[in-house]
Amino acid sequence: MSTALITGASSGIGARTAALLVERGLTVFGAARNTDAVAAIEGVIPVKLDLSDDASIRAAVAQATERVGRVDILINCAGYGEFGTVEETSLDAARQQLEVNVLGAVGLIQAVLPGMRDARHGRIVNVSSLAGEFAAPLGGWYHASKFALEALSDSLRGEVAQFGIDVTLVQPSYVATDWHDTAMERLAETSGDGPYASMAAAMRRYFSSPALARQMSTPDAVARLIVKAALTPHPHTRYRIGAGANIAVAMATLLPDRTFDALTRKQFGYA
Questions:
Q1: I need a labelling partner for 207 at 20 to 30 A (CA). Which of 84, 113, 116, 226 fits?
Q2: How many domains does the chain fold into?
């Protein structure tokens, strides 16, 4: 495999992953709205991409395939967190969350699969989250998007294995990027006032705490894991990273729902 297309390549985890893939000798197309930032990464070919626009998705894949013939590795790394209560989050905001985190990723998958099938090999890496394994209050639509990406990846894996194509998920926990700042800004806008204000304030305090900052993975560590998922000959179906990630998933799976709810309330400091 020699050609990779990665979304979210203008900053954070996506930018670091793109740079690492170039270091490994791949031809790398970095897709993002901000192509100037992508162009600043040495060796990465910038591609304009709006994940909520079908035409932009098709054009991004066409740009890569016209230049190199096909995409061998697709890494869906772009995404954001729409935080706020289920009651107060507008359906327009919910639709946008699903457009970017789910439908945009699937649109890219659909666009690259014909070339991968013809070549009888390929790799799709979907960057999900521990938020795709269990849900907590105030992030329902973000969790919904990651649950959907997990399910679609599982279905896709069984469909395309016959063509020599692997599908794998990377599930980071907390990562030291500005993702959390944006998510908490959306939370404040949506639920910072009104009946859920105290919950929103508690979550914002939690995400700004020095204790949480010490638990966060670095973007470089997550990027290295994504590169492993993309290049290892026989990938796992899922790769997790973050302090206590496997324990958290086990607790969500094994504990009674209301017990897990109580632990979540305690973790975030809800009354």
A1: 226
A2: 1
